[in-house]
Design brief:
It comes from Arthrobacter hankyongi. The chain has helices at residues 20-28, 37-43, 60-69, and strands at residues 2-5, 32-36, 55-57. The chain is an alpha/beta fold.
């Protein structure tokens, strides 16, 4: 399972936020957390400021479209 975060919500993936511990649990259990780099740029956040283990994708929309073509299901939360 992958969770792709975009828009203003990417700031919740920053190191030291209230969600950091919850993100660590998800990551330890094999759930990939990915932040949209376009959204990060808009929020003034760089990859070094993300909670350890959180990955990035250049553009969430393009990444999600590619995953769907590969057979993945998309659920918007």
């Amino acid at each position: 399972m992958e969770v792709v975060v975009q828009g203003a919500a990417v700031t919740s993936l920053a190191r030291g936020t209230d969600l950091s511990e919850s993100l660590a649990v998800l990551l330890r259990n094999g759930i990939a957390i990915l932040a949209c780099e376009n959204s990060m740029r808009s929020a003034g956040l760089d990859a070094g400021g993300l909670t350890a283990g959180v990955g990035t994708v250049p553009a969430a929309v393009a990444y999600l479209a590619r995953r769907q073509w590969e057979g993945w299901a998309y659920v918007r939360l």
